[in-house]
Amino acid sequence: RQDQYHIAIDIGASSGRVVCGTLQEPGGTLSLTEIHRFRNGFSEKNGNLYWDVDYLFAEIVKGLQKAKSKGIEQCTVGIDTWAVDYVLLDQEGARIHEVFSYRDSRTDGAVQSLHRNISTESVYEKTGIQVLPINTLYQLFVHDQVELEEAHSILLVPDYLYYRLTGRRISEVTNASTTGLLNLQTRDYDADLLALLGLSKEQFPPLTEPGERIGGFTEELSARGDLPVCEFIAVATHDTASAVLGVPASSDNWGFLSSGTWSLIGVERASAITSPEAMERNYTNEWGAFGSFRFLKNIMGMWLIQKVREEYGGQYSFGELVELAAQEIPFRSIIYCNDERFLNPPSMISEIRCYCVEVGQLVPQTPGEIARCVFDSLALSYYFYVQDLQLLTGEKWDRLHIVGGGANNGLLCQIAADLLEMEIYAGPTESTALGNVVMQMISVGTVADIKEARKIIYRSFDVTTYPPQVMDSTLKTAALAEFARLQVV
Ligand code: LRH
After folding, report:
1. Where is the Carbohydrate kinase FGGY N-terminal domain (predicted)?
2. To test the ligand 1 pocket, which listed residue (40, 239, 261) has its Cβ within 8 A of the most ligand atoms?
């Protein structure tokens, strides 16, 4: 119905947006209007890295005020953000500590320390979650014990924002799975892992499925009068979960690449895979809406180029860096993007150059050469992980859907299509906000299910296809061999 407004609050590591989705009559097309956009990022204080969640809350309120001033009197609202980071609250709801960024180096060595107490195998068997130092499991392991004991509740960032807006404390499941604390069998927090961290189950609010109605504003916010009447709905609050809901898939055998600050490459499945091979290769099973799983791999992603761009003082736009890279010789310098040294180095450009020196490659000098190195290396990782994913699942893909901001990078899409010899469907860039919006529509009943939602997205937004072009086979073989060598260096 035209009169139904669904607002998505979608906050990534580098920017946030408040957008409004409407369905032009049931079965029609979906439109998305941006209401408000703001920057996001962590900052350093006394040697630690923190997010400013008060600022995020203020920007959300500003966005909703703008919605009202544009004539939206009534709407539903869903919130999604990046995963794994958490907020500790006391009984009254005050924060016990500022919110650490997952890139904080306090987790250096945490993986090794934690697994002195419990093996990686037994954790993987329980949770199906890949070992990454950013996981909440490892973050909580190094968190001050006294503060943890003091915490009445532990909320992930979107849960916290829902709490600030509505007063209700929830643990939305798609994001909760990224903590690395959920047990696949019991579908609840794992007792052994909680005991290891010295936490109790009561410190986590009730698990909540996407689609559940959370309620309206707190009394204080309702009393303001400058905000629309909002009904908050739990969406898939993990941005990657929403991004995959927003994939305009129309075939059965598709893989996805959610391309933003991170590149998340994988496949949607009905069940988790916790085979020894999946564990050994460190693939993860994140929970999706409607009981699905995303079997995927985290790749360092556009973070690499975001940092490079920042270090050039912002003098090149992303588009310009892509253009410069397109003029360079392919596969001249290659990095293994997932090396932990790229998680948050003091200088990304120096780190890339040092890496190339260390592995005996030509050292990229110009902005074009650096950008080319990043894009070639990302495309090569996509190639290797797609082979793995098809092997581990025993399913062959007929296409790869690239969604998120990275879908705009035509050069990267084409290199990936050529390496993979697979057709790439790029877009929409706003799939996360779309996944957020359609979840609200399913919840209120204007859209039947995710299959219908994806059809609606497919017919409402532009998708660019990149058919594979023939790549010089000597060049390809050499590049693949070099990347394989780096993976084991
Ligand atoms: C992408 C993302 C990803 C997580 C990382 C912390 O924004 O949510 O899925 O692994 O951030």
Report:
1. 5-246
2. 239
